[in-house]
Amino acid sequence: MESSNGKPPQGKEEGMAAAAEGSIGGYESLHRLLESNLSPELFKEASRLLLGLNCARPLEAISLPGATTALAEAHDFDVQAFRFNADKEQMRQPRIVRVGLVQNSIAVPTTCHFADQKKAIMEKVKLIIDAAGASGVNVLCLQEAWTMPFAFCTREKRWCEFAEPVDGESTQFLQDLAQKYNMVIVSPILERDINHGEIIWNTVVVIGNNGNIIGIHRKNHIPRVGDFNESTYYMEGNTGHPVFETAYGKIAVNICYGRHHPLNWLAFGLNGAEIVFNPSATVGELSEPMWPVEARNAAIANSYFVGSINRVGTEVFPNAFTSGDGKPQHADFGHFYGSSHFSAPDASCTPSLSRYRDGLMISDMDLNLCRQIKDKWAFRMTARYDMYANLLSEYMKPDYKPQVISDPLINKRKA
Amino acid sequence: MESSNGKPPQGKEEGMAAAAEGSIGGYESLHRLLESNLSPELFKEASRLLLGLNCARPLEAISLPGATTALAEAHDFDVQAFRFNADKEQMRQPRIVRVGLVQNSIAVPTTCHFADQKKAIMEKVKLIIDAAGASGVNVLCLQEAWTMPFAFCTREKRWCEFAEPVDGESTQFLQDLAQKYNMVIVSPILERDINHGEIIWNTVVVIGNNGNIIGIHRKNHIPRVGDFNESTYYMEGNTGHPVFETAYGKIAVNICYGRHHPLNWLAFGLNGAEIVFNPSATVGELSEPMWPVEARNAAIANSYFVGSINRVGTEVFPNAFTSGDGKPQHADFGHFYGSSHFSAPDASCTPSLSRYRDGLMISDMDLNLCRQIKDKWAFRMTARYDMYANLLSEYMKPDYKPQVISDPLINKRKA
To answer: Phi and psi (nearest 5°) for B214?
Structure first.
């Protein structure tokens, strides 16, 4: 499924996933790069540090059924699976949940009819959902705005046609699969809010394992950076920080740019989340240095699991656009670098999925680890939230004076 | 200054720095391990990802004066120096500051007379401060409770003898050096609060470049984990989140365990900090997986520089103690793994100092980068602090009800 030197497979479809990606080389993941080039002993050590495995619980690879690996081989998507362990408790049974993350490129060029683009994406994602179902995944999360290319870079409003009501086509499609596989499915879509003037939201629909819609959440923080022109299309969400109590644990969704906001992560934690998904669409030059940092920090700070998802590939649009950086117009947003992975509350994480190919990341996680880490580290008890509630209330006042202590001798001597 | 295979130097003083350290091997840093074992080309790529250098500004090594490197060689401490660059602006001149971090082991066994222990530490730290002075460092931060062994693991109250008033011996010692080198010095000590019943605090004294005391800050969050029995000795700080306006920029100090609290980092940012130091004392088995994550996340989320410091070596105490883990009594706290480093608001960071030896990390940083990143990413403008002020106020109420949406069919089908 991958070449031995850690480089991505050849034969990308023309115009959909450009090979050139600037300064980053062509390997599938840092983990695989090191695995291919270090001695087994050194790789083990590097891996221990990089994945935060300096603890009593090593990360174990899970062997998956043939039906899953056959689908992955036939359709060239990356599949990886790992187990996070927890301590045995005397008063609670383990609560082991199998969780999956899906990353994918678009399926046909963006010049195709919108209906054909959507249909082709749904067909390819169905194969990955089938693979997850064959492995008994309990909770599965798809990527941000999974039914469409991430066209917000263009600022063209015609892409709003991809928006759907909460109970629209893609939700119905997933409700059938949720019921078939007894699986909770988290579906991030572009929402058209029929009951409020047909406005647009960036929304996630949470579908229960009986195929019912449990509820929705709307993206809280909308980016104003690079070509992420999403603020042209939709406003900040109005759904607070809901946690969804499902048959397989308490889950929440921090959509994309919300991962840069520690308070957003915190709020889902305060409401009791045990797994927080971060379905994203983000590109290499801008955010790749942050990608391995923010989700792990959130898992540590809030004592829950995080599932990070990024779409993959380069999407080329029909009309060229500029990027506010003085460079010539161009027709793509840059390379979405995939690299979906899980982070755990004990500071460990899995390796990442491919930077180039579609993928399914599976982890078994004992949700008991969340409370075990809360008891061990006591972050919530030592957090002094009252102090910060007061500070933020003061800070919101237009006449807020920062707490600054100035050196009275600051100008005495030439610095 | 280091062996070619990335392993630590031999010949540690007996009883002060035990060699055995469990599952982690004997290399000085992950960066050096990879440098010694990857081809230059692959090392460059791995390094780019690990240090977050996927941006227009590469990290450059700085060449230091002979006086600095001679001191480092003569006294066997690690010295590294790097430059973070920023874009040129039209309306502001660059504001380049040279910042230093000091990590050190204790100097004589903990069985020695307390006065001798303190004197020996001050003598060895003076050599590192001299090296920083010779390099023209503008702002220097020492490690947490730098005048003493980190004896709180023992729960023995006799170590409180190391506490000093804010204007005590160690402050006076540093005031002279601050004036001599025209250097701001940040000095974390165990404080005895003479005017409030001689109580104990974990405090940082900020000394201006004219040798004056600018002010203090007291540790906001006190750990309750492992052998960090600090809550036996002192309470949560009462100084808020001050930012110190010095001749070389606005600095703040997040002491040790405060780094696990994103709100603590946030508050210093809201008050305008451009550099936040995190003087720490932390051991391998417990926190090493978190160490490369939390400071970088804080630098990213708050658009400021972070200087992370951890003491180094293994401190063996006169009386054995147990650790609440069912294991036999022992007389040491584990290995303090050094690894001091800088993180920048653009998500890049420096390599780390040695995991085994004393060290001085120097960075030149253009503080203009902070505002440039604020403008680019707009995290503060998109943060919706009003929403979180309300949430935290509600959360503090004893009858707070988490925002939970339960699947009504949760028990319909066996999960």
So the answer is: -80, -40
Residue B294: closest C-alpha in chain A = A297
**The one catalytic residue among A21, A28, A141, A219:** A219
Residue B388: the pLDDT is 98
Encode A382-395: b = buried (16+ Cβ within 10 Å), e = exposed: bbebebbbebbbeb
Interchain contact, B260 vs A50, CB within 8 Å? no
How far off is chain A from B193, nearest CA to CA, in Å? 20
B22: closest chain A residue by CA: A54
Chain A residue at shortest CA distance from B286: A55
Per-residue pLDDT, averaged over A280-297, amounts to: 92
As its CATH architecture, domain A57-377 has: 4-Layer Sandwich (3.60)
Furthest-apart CA pair in chain B: how many Å?
A: 75
Choose, from B144, B191, B274, B315, the residue flagged as catalytic. B144
DSSP strands (E only) in A230-325: 243-246, 249-253, 275-280, 305-310, 312-321
| Fold entry, domain B62-377 | Nitrilase/N-carbamoyl-D-aminoacid amidohydrolase (3.60.110)
Secondary structure (DSSP) of B144-173: TTTTS--GGGG--GGGGGG-B-TTSHHHHH
Q: What is the pLDDT of residues B34-81, one digit of tens each?
A: 888 898 888 888 888 888 875 556 678 999 999 999 999 999 999 999
Residue type, A109: P
The encoded tokens of residue B329 equal 């009594």
Instruction: Give the span between the Cα atoms of A206 and A178, in whole angstroms.
Output: 10
Catalytic residue among A144, A164, A294, A315: A144
- With CB atoms and an 8 Å threshold, state whether A407 touches B53: no
Mean pLDDT of B91-117: 98
Please give the full DSSP string across B26-91, using - where no structure is assigned: S-S-HHHHHHHHS-HHHHHHHHHHHTT--SSS--EEPPPPHHHHHHHHHTT-EEEEEEE-----SS
Task: Indicate the domain borders of chain B.
Answer: 31-56, 62-377
